[in-house]
Design brief:
The chain has 26 helices and 2 strands. It is mainly α. Strands 1-2 form a two-stranded antiparallel sheet. Helix 10 packs parallel to helix 13, helix 13 packs antiparallel against helix 14 and helix 14 runs antiparallel to helix 15. The chain is globular and about 65 Å long. The N and C termini lie close together (about 5 Å).
């Protein structure tokens, strides 16, 4: 047994990294907004954020005191930044607002927007879309939600006459600002320990150069909000949001919903294998059958992901039901217009045309569908073969990139659908900002190429536009490659918590009840616990007879030495 002098002379225990993190960065326990996980400060882990930190006051120091409500702080900062960037995007389009998008000025000033063009070309100030048409003009073939949205905005602001398209554009900007804040809020709550990654979404060049080309901010926000609702266990609300997203931009709702189903399928299969039982042929399961034994003993209900998918499908069907009842041909054209099409701007299929050998519409359609099916099959195989179930945003990003790079057309505004998924799946600031810069360059190149079509010997040459298209496709494939890499090598995924259960992938913040599994296992609020008690103390819990009382002031802890 040791003497009191020996105990006092014993070397102090080694420092605890977790304790240092609690003292330096702040820790949040089970009743805090991030469920006990230490909030990741960007300047501590991201090289680009650290390099840019001097502009905003420097890197967060060891004694920095983080906000007691980090989610609110991240939401407020990112939302403010996003609104500033969106306001700058409006200023870049002021020339077009003044000239009412007159050609070729809208290409020279890179301020083109689909909103006034579609509103004017569809005569939405005179007819109800899909149900009526102006004589000698075809019915609208846009996605149902997009047509209804533009028509509703026109009715809301009373858009009429020559300035009607501008009024609708202004209304779409206000709606886009609301959608951007919603998207930021969803990303903040779905990022787990990394709420400040929403800053990349808000300050991305995609918002500045592509967000106001169309209304894609709306379906992008609806899709990521649907994932947020699903993570909170609101299956029906999630389905409603994903269905609305699919009405405006089918890929937005379809990719998010398919990702939920694929990850759920993989997790149920792993759970059945872990229990030594075959998967049940029925889709009935408890809402937390693979997470909590008590919940699994409840009466079976329809699987929440299936409820989400069924609700989304019903919402999408109801959105087009008036058109289906009125004219099946118009309904079918609106559904298939983006699938059966010739080579469009920005797509891989346009490259041959830029080089002097254009593809026929039938060839483009058949090849696009074949490659898309093959790409989706590859994503499904990846989800099933990965060492751990991939995170939902990672799978959604893979599906989105697969659909876009194989699509007959890849317009600039499609990048807005990728942005929130990329931030959630790959929160590496340098990678995302480089990709956003490529998207901005490709968007500007598209307008300059169209300018060359209007004014010969001006604008961007076809070969230069082909280079930009290749760069853009390459950047998207890099995102897909990184997403596949973190799926096959989960230890490289910076979002996953090392304390989570690896067998079921419950460390995905986008899954229902996932955060319960990554909460800090030590809810003791003491900021300086004993980090590493002496090994002999653990082996011999009986204190020595001469040990001073634990409450005695200044008493040295007694240690057992053999």
């Amino acid at each position: 047994m040791s003497s009191p002098d020996e105990s006092a002379a014993a070397p102090p225990p080694p420092p605890d990294p977790a304790g240092a993190a609690r003292a330096g960065r702040g820790v949040h326990h089970d009743d805090d907004p991030v469920d006990g996980a230490v909030v990741v400060l960007p300047t501590h882990e991201d090289e680009l954020a650290r390099a840019a930190a001097p502009v905003a006051g420097g890197t967060a120091g060891r004694r920095v005191r983080t906000s007691r409500r980090p989610l609110r702080a991240a939401l407020a900062g990112a939302s403010a930044l996003g609104l500033v960037v969106l306001a700058a995007a409006v200023l870049l389009r002021e020339h077009c607002r003044e000239t009412l998008w007159a050609s070729p000025g809208l290409y020279v000033h890179a301020c083109y927007s689909d909103v006034p063009t579609l509103y004017a070309d569809g005569h939405l100030d005179q007819v109800v879309p899909y149900l009526e048409r102006v004589e000698s003009r075809d019915f609208l073939d846009l996605p149902f939600g997009l047509g209804w949205l533009l028509w509703g905005l026109g009715r809301l602001v009373g858009a009429d006459g020559a300035t009607g398209p501008r009024d609708v554009f202004d209304a779409s900007v206000v709606l886009g600002a609301v959608a951007l804040v919603v998207a930021v809020a969803a990303v903040v709550h779905l990022s787990g320990r990394r709420p400040y990654d929403a800053v990349v979404l808000a300050g991305s060049p995609v918002v500045l150069f592509c967000a106001l080309v169309g209304v894609q901010l709306v379906p992008a926000a609806l899709a990521v909000a649907g994932l947020w609702a699903s993570a909170r266990g609101r299956a029906v609300v999630a389905g409603l949001l994903l269905g609305l997203a699919a009405l405006v931009a089918p890929l937005a709702g379809l990719c998010a919903g398919a990702a939920l189903l694929l990850v759920r399928w993989r997790r149920r299969r792993d759970d059945a294998a872990a229990r030594g039982a075959r998967p049940e042929p029925s889709a009935a399961a408890g809402p937390g059958d693979d997470l909590d034994g008590e919940e699994a003993s409840r009466p079976p209900v329809l699987d929440p992901e299936l409820r989400t998918a069924a609700t989304a499908a019903l919402v999408w069907f109801l959105g087009g039901l008036p058109v289906l009842l009125d004219n099946f041909g118009v309904w079918l054209d609106a559904v298939t217009a983006r699938l059966v099409a010739g080579p469009g701007y920005g797509s891989a299929w346009m490259l041959s045309g830029l080089l002097g050998a254009p593809l026929a519409q039938g060839t483009t359609t058949a090849a696009s569908l074949a490659l898309r099916v093959a790409g989706v099959a590859a994503v499904v195989l990846l989800v099933l073969r990965a060492p751990r179930p991939p995170r939902v945003p990672v799978v959604a990003l893979l599906l989105m990139v697969t659909a876009l790079v194989t699509a007959p057309a890849l317009p600039p505004q499609a990048a807005v659908l990728v942005l929130p998924l990329a931030v959630l799946a790959l929160p590496h600031w340098r990678l995302l900002l480089v990709w956003g810069a490529v998207e901005a360059a490709a968007a500007t190149g598209t307008w300059l190429y169209l300018y060359s079509s209007s004014v010969p010997d001006r604008g961007l040459a076809p070969w230069a536009y082909a280079v930009l298209v290749l760069l853009r496709l390459g950047a998207l494939l890099v995102l897909a490659g990184r997403a596949a890499d973190v799926s096959l090598r989960p230890e490289r995924d910076v979002v996953r918590s090392p304390r989570s259960e690896p067998s079921l992938g419950v460390d995905d913040p986008a899954l229902p009840l996932a955060r319960r599994a990554v909460a800090d296992p030590d809810p003791d609020p003491d900021p300086d616990p004993d980090p590493d008690p002496d090994p002999d103390e653990r082996l011999d819990p009986t204190p020595p007879a001469h040990a001073p009382p634990a409450h005695a002031a200044g008493a040295a802890p007694a240690r057992t030495v053999r």
